Amino acid sequence: MTDSRQDSDKYLKKRAFFDSLLTIYGRKPVLEALEDLSLPVHKLHLADSNRRDQLIARMEQLASERQIEIAYWDRKGLSRISRNARQDQGVALDLALPHYGTTEAFLNEGKKGGNQKNYELLALDGITNPQNLGMIIRSACAGGMDGIILPRKGCAQIDPLVIKASTGTLFRMRLLRCEDLAPALSEFRQQGARICGLSSHAQKSLSDFGGEAPTIFVLGNETRGVSDDVARQCTHRLRIPMHNNVESLNVAVTAALISFRRQI
Amino acid sequence: MTDSRQDSDKYLKKRAFFDSLLTIYGRKPVLEALEDLSLPVHKLHLADSNRRDQLIARMEQLASERQIEIAYWDRKGLSRISRNARQDQGVALDLALPHYGTTEAFLNEGKKGGNQKNYELLALDGITNPQNLGMIIRSACAGGMDGIILPRKGCAQIDPLVIKASTGTLFRMRLLRCEDLAPALSEFRQQGARICGLSSHAQKSLSDFGGEAPTIFVLGNETRGVSDDVARQCTHRLRIPMHNNVESLNVAVTAALISFRRQI
Fold first, then answer.
1. Which residue of A lies nearest to B239 if distances are taken between CA atoms?
2. Do A253 and B173 touch (CB under 8 A)?
3. Is A47 helix (H, G, I), strand (E, B) or coil?
């Protein structure tokens, strides 16, 4: 019994560690990340098939200087790690982010009573511009949001552009990954969270939205808005009132107004 | 007497019209503006010395199709219009923006009792990124600010990038030009306006800043903050309270939080 408990603890710890890894790929992004000493790097992955040019030599040198483990893989192995064979250019890098996790882990904490306070999260639906993603992270972090749900499908992923636009806040913000946004929101909803879609056509204004309960604010694509699948999960629709017939705001600005609404 | 009154009215009208002109320059920006039918164009200016290539021919064709007057100048004449001989590439274009004016005209209205209500303006100090400038205009317009003070010195100027980032709001927002920001703010101050510098080091929080009076919020450069000359004109220093040790926000986000602070 004790052995199996220990094994399971070990397994869960290991799994939590792997959940905190963010894998970036492509020669330029990986080289830039290796050169940025503020980034906590776990492991460098290289394909055997890479021509040993200056760039690869420079990566190996940086990894050795920073005492970062290097793993060599065949093309297939590498593409399993990068999850993007077409764009990885034979190179991937694991960053170990302390606040990087999954919606699943967050929901499990909730079941155990770990985050039963009235958390507020942002959820991103179709945010494809890395600059905007970085600015959303920065604003949400400064505004004190409890986390950002970032689905793998349909959104920009964390890359050096995003890291740069987040001006270092990426490593302080809780990021919750999931595969698809709609099913993840459905689970949050089943646990009692309010799911609020921001829309310029909504009747209710953000300023009239009160009460205390776990709440998720969904930010949609700037042009297309919130997608249909995600809209079906929304329990509330809210708008930000605007002057001068302006129809929409930059999505990072919207994120900031939500995050700071009780502080300014 | 009547004649001279009419002459002076005519002169002032003409001057107000010319104050509303925004001159952009450079071959690509001018061509793009001519192709954008939503932009109100007054006049196309070309240097005699231009080689008559495809680009120039296309501009002339577009101007003729849109019934826009073309003026031809020697190099010196053209550079007097563009005010940037090094970058105008022999081409300039006047846009006629309905809400584009000067701080001087705004202050004169005040003296005549025209804007004695408690206006709120943003003033830009060292905002050099066109993307940010466009986003500031968009946010301030949506948030219902009464105008934006844009000095010619030290700030990005309105160009096609800014127009694009403003997503069409540029033509609805009152823009007040001046040469240098500090002397312009000094005049506003003499007319009784409160001049508020935003700074992360300020003691007083934006949320504690109440009262009703004409107010100008100064936004400084993201890296260097508000410049010394401008800081000396400030009657108040305010900060936006931030979580997670975040030190600064994107300047367009700051503009949005100020503009929307009473509505969200």
1. A264
2. no
3. strand
Q: Please, which pLDDT band fits residue B172 given cuts at 50, 70 and 90?
A: confident
Q: Which of B171, B204, B250 to mutate to test the interface with A (most CBs of A within 10 A)?
A: B250
The domain that holds A87 is classified in CATH as: 3.30.1330.30
* Nearest beta carbon to residue B144 from set A173, A243, A249: A243
Contacts of B50 by beta carbon, 8 Å cutoff, 6+ apart: B56, B90, B91
Q: Which helix (H) or strand (E) holds B60?
A: helix B54-65
Residue B84: band (very low, low, confident or very high) from pLDDT cuts 50, 70, 90:
confident
What is the b/e burial string over A161-187, where b = at least 16 CB atoms within 10 angstroms of the residue's CB?
bbbebbbbbbbbbbbbbbeebbebbeb
- For residues A10-31, average pLDDT: 83
B263 with A207: Cβ contact below 8 A: yes
Using DSSP bridges, classify how beta strands B91-96 and B41-47 pair: parallel, antiparallel or unpaired.
antiparallel
Give the residue among B195, B192, B202 at the shortest CA–CA distance from B225: B202
The boundaries of the domain holding residue B192 are 100-260
Say if residue B155 is in the same domain as residue B238.
Answer: yes
**Which residues of chain B lie closer than 8 angstroms to A138, CB-CB?**
246, 249-250, 253
Contacts of B253 in chain A (CB under 8 A): 135, 138-139, 252-253, 256
Contact call for residues B94 and B19 (beta carbons, < 8 A): no
* Residues of B whose CB is below 8 A from A263: 207, 240-241
Judged by CB atoms closer than 8 Å, whether chains meet at B246 and A207 is answered as: no
Alpha-carbon B34 to chain mean position: 20
Residue A137 shares a structural domain with residue A247: yes
Least CB-CB distance to B141: which of A169, A243, A260?
A: A243
Q: Residue A35 falls within a domain, yes or no?
A: yes
Whether residue A149 is found in the same domain as residue A246: yes
Terminal-residue alpha carbon distance, chain A: 54
Q: What is the pLDDT of residues B193-233, one digit of tens each?
A: 999 999 888 999 999 998 889 999 999 998 889 999 999 99
Counting residues of chain A whose pLDDT is more than 70, the rounded percentage is: 96
Q: How far apart are the C-alpha atoms of B21 and B184, rounded to whole Å?
A: 20
User: Per the CB < 8 Å rule, is A244 touching B206?
Assistant: no
Identity of the residue in A141, A242, A252 whose CB atom sits nearest the CB atom of B246: A141
Count of structural domains, chain B:
2
DSSP H/E element including B87: none
Helix axes of A181-190 and A103-111: crossing angle, nearest 10 degrees: 10
Three-state secondary structure call for residue B7: helix
Q: Do A166 and A251 lie in a common domain?
A: yes
ipTM computed for the complex: 0.82
CA B245 to each of CA A38, A54, A138, B216: distance values in angstroms, whole numbers, following the listed order: 16, 39, 11, 27
Residue A133 CA to residue A103 CA, distance in Å, equals 18
Q: Is residue B127 part of a domain?
A: yes
* Nearest-by-Cβ selection for B243 from A143, A250, A261: A143
Question: CA-nearest residue of chain A to B169?
Answer: A246
